[in-house]
Amino acid sequence: MEGKYVGQAVTRIDARSKVTGQALYPGDFVMEGMLYMKLLFAGRPHARVLRVDTEKAESLPGVVAVFTSRDVPFNEYGLQYPDQPVLVGPPGDPEAARQLVGGGIGRDEVRFVGDQIAAVVAESEEIAAQAVDLIAVEYEDLPVLSDPRDSLKPDAPQLHPKYPGVSYHPELVFEGNIASRHRIRRGDVDAAFAQAAVVVESEYEIPGQEHIFLQPEAGVGYVDDEGRVTVITSGQWAHEDRHQVAHALGLEEEQVRIIYPAIGGAFGGKEDLSVHIVLALAAWKLHRPVKLVWSRTESIIGHHKRHHVFARARWAAAADGTLLAAENYVIADAGGYVYTTNKVMGNLLLTCNGPYKIPNVKTDVLGVYTNNIPGGAFRGFGAPQGNFIAEAQMNKLAEALGMDPVELRLLNVVQGDDPMPWGKPLPDDARGLVDTLIAAAKAVGWQQTEQGWQAPACAPRPGDPPTLKRGVGLALGVKNVGFSFGYQENAWAAIELRGGREIEAAVVYAASSDVGQGTRTVIRQMAAEALNLPLELVTLEPTDTGITESSGSCSASRMTFMIGNAIKGAAEAALQKWADEDRPARAEYTYLAPKTTPIDRETGYGDPNFSYGYVTVATQIAVDTLTGQLYFPKMACANDVGQAINPRLLTGQIEGGVIQGLGWATTEHFIEKDGYPLTKTLSTYLVPTIVDIPDELEAIVIENPEPHGPWGARGMGEMPLIPVAAAVQAALHHAVGLWYDAFPFTTERVLRGLKLKE
To answer: What is the arithmetic mean of pLDDT over 509-537?
Structure first.
């Protein structure tokens, strides 16, 4: 439903300050008397810390303090489960240690190279760095598990003690090295395979991915005028950050304050904590401002990655293309700690069978501890890995059946009341699945004929060398919007109307993180629309736990959907107060999304999500068979967004998501060997440049209103990335006749496959 401001390409609220360099990011803040921090990272994948000697570091002129594990009151944290020590080393207070998860056992154990051992605070960053090198640590190296499949072997060393489970995360099992387990059981898979006309079996290796946000982890900790331990930093959920900081320091949450200024990207990589607790610890102990900025290499080793996944898939279809059965077995590398593995694997479970009518399903998804850098949230949150499995299988079935891949999908895609593999239909009519599929397919040359849908011939073009082969491919995607699996999704907002006889200003309070996508601009638009006020009268207060309640995380494609509904509720209540002459009129509103349920641990049945987004990516490809180089003349992404609140920002999200997905599919190869990352600089981890992106990228916006979304909007931030890798795989196969079941599709990998084919 387009309005005066909703549906308009309003200029970003932060555009001028960012272009001119006036916007302050966490690393830009300077305070009087400020100190500087550097961290000692373990730099080894698995070891016990026997002793930390800080005497030489502390005696270096200019060093103010050195903090170790003994200085952290409650030495544990974690977004889903507190299985990670803040600083690894021998415990401090034995009584406090006994209160930790697992009784504090294993808090002296390094489990990946990015574990932190000590924090040095000094008068300058240079002195702090020198002091870090003077810290002597005695380690007892332990066996390293670098492949999750090895972690499952009966004789594998157990990387964590047996933790107590939690009722609100039933998928966390802590069995040996298994951190999480999900499954679906529907129908009789064996009987379906026995009667199938076509069965496709495959093994896939789906890589991790580094977030490479432009702004590395940084922040300033200090004690504010009200005595609150305050951290100016970047993140995706300020109130959750506050909760974890307060827990580690043994403080009440009201004694901790988190402020987000401008944030230079996140993509899920700032859901988990990085600099927050150590900055708060130092500020609390020293009562002076302390600043910490990670280098690019520290950022790469210190925060989680997209999960590296190994999968086996066996799918069956009848001769007419009707899907009969899907069987998937997935092992994901959780790395050293849980982070969000349990929830990422839940999304992978829901997406690895695609949005298709499959009467018989058997799927197992395991999140497994290793000594690699932890796996965690990354744009798509498990859906890109699940989508690759499902869409690769669909494209292979289409080939085996002699059917066009668009035809096969149209035959099997869920619509209306068709149940998904977890036993429930999607909560709307899911028209966006068909609409995006057809729109993207047409954009790269598919045509609907009397015989059905047909892909373009992809004949050589004038000037093509004989070594150049062309092809097309596509993939269809679905992903949840918002938190799920029984969590009561919520978001808070407040609006204050000021003025005399007329409203002269509207001040919006929302704890929404804006990680670069323009959320705060969209909030301002929605508030102006809901209040029917000129945009220039609406201002937005910063994300600051000192003045706001929780609006939830900027993740799960949820923020516009959730905060938009909260803004509508707050606006309605504030306008009523104004009409009643209760002025200034301030109203708060907490939006509660439709309820969801956990899925059954044995069958996977349940009602896990209240909203979904729909997307299709289609691509043309040109492959130089002499060099293995890939070129992309055109890519198209059709995204059902429900309602475009700001079409310009939305188009930017589509373009950015597709290119980020293309990087994951082609150039970004995150390599770990024996627990050590080998690609920890931008010279070895290659993100796409201008020469790697498509010549043309068509962003197709489709608007089927979401029944519960504000003005009909549905979340879309993650969707454009999700089907990219599977679409590229299909196009590559169409061009050269090979299925590449492991990626990224680097020139080396493509060329190696072509050589083997010869």
So the answer is: 97
Spatial CB neighbours of 620, under 8 Å, sequence gap ≥ 6: 444, 445, 458, 470, 471, 472, 632, 633, 634, 635, 731
The amino acid at 278 = V
* Spatial separation of the C-alpha atoms in residues 119 and 71, rounded to whole Å: 10
Any idea what DSSP says for residue 247?
H
Amino acid identity, position 81: Y
Q: Are 613 and 478 in contact (CB under 8 A)?
A: yes
H/E element, 585: strand 585-592
- Determine the Cα–Cα distance for residues 389 and 386; give it in Å rounded to an integer: 5
Distance CA 77, CA 344 (A): 18
CATH 3.90.1170.50 fits 33-142, yes or no: yes
Predicted confidence at residue 551, as pLDDT, reads 97
- Displacement of CA 723 from its chain's centroid (Å): 15
Q: What are phi and psi of 345, to 5 degrees?
A: -65, -30
Percent pLDDT > 70 in the chain is: 100
Is pLDDT at 1 greater than 70 in this prediction? no
**568 Cβ neighbours under 8 A, 6+ residues apart:** 526, 530, 591, 710
Pairing of strands 47-53, 109-110: antiparallel
* pLDDT grade for 92, boundaries at 50, 70 and 90: confident
pTM, 2 dp? 0.97
pLDDT digits (tens, 9 = 90+) for 120-138: 999 999 999 999 999 999 9
For 576-620, what is each residue's pLDDT tens digit? 999 999 999 999 999 999 999 999 999 999 999 999 999 999 999
* CA–CA gap between residue 133 and residue 126 (Å, rounded): 11
pLDDT in tens, 142-157: 999 999 999 999 999 9
The pLDDT value given to residue 758: 80
In this structure, are residues 659 and 725 in contact, taking their beta carbons and an 8 Å threshold?
no
Rg (CA), the chain: 26
Q: How many CB atoms lie within 10 A of CB 564?
A: 27
pLDDT confidence of residue 734:
98
∠ at Cα 43 (37, 48), nearest 5°?
105
Which of 116, 128, 123, 40 is CA-nearest to residue 85?
116
C-alpha distances in Å from residue 73, one per residue of 85, 256, 299, 681: 11, 15, 25, 34
| Cβ–Cβ < 8 Å for 456, 444 | yes
pLDDT digits (tens, 9 = 90+) for 425-473: 999 999 999 999 999 999 999 999 999 999 999 999 999 999 999 999 9
Q: Which has the closest alpha carbon to 612: 725, 445, 481, 436?
A: 481
Fold assignment, 309-416+430-483+600-757:
Aldehyde Oxidoreductase; domain 4 (3.30.365)
**Domain ranges, ordered by start, for the chain:** 15-22+484-592, 33-142, 309-416+430-483+600-757
Q: What does residue 744 show for φ and ψ, rounded to 5 degrees?
A: -70, 155
Q: In the block, which residue shows the tokens 């992809």?
A: 458
Burial of 59 (0-12, 13-18, 19+ CB in 10 A): exposed
Same fold, 15-22+484-592 and 309-416+430-483+600-757: yes
pLDDT average, residue stretch 535-561: 97
Matching CATH number, 15-22+484-592, of 3.20.20.70, 1.10.357.20, 3.30.365.10, 3.40.50.620: 3.30.365.10
Structure tokens at 399: 């080939």
Please state, rounded to an integer, the average pLDDT across all residues of the chain: 97
**SS3 at position 71:** helix
Q: ∠ CA(553), CA(555), CA(556), 5° rounding?
A: 120
With beta carbons less than 8 A apart as the criterion, state whether 517 and 263 touch: no
Residue with tokens 């993650």: 718
204-247: per-residue pLDDT in tens?
Answer: 999 999 999 999 999 999 999 999 999 999 999 999 999 999 99
Q: Are 485 and 556 in contact, with CB atoms under 8 Å apart?
A: no
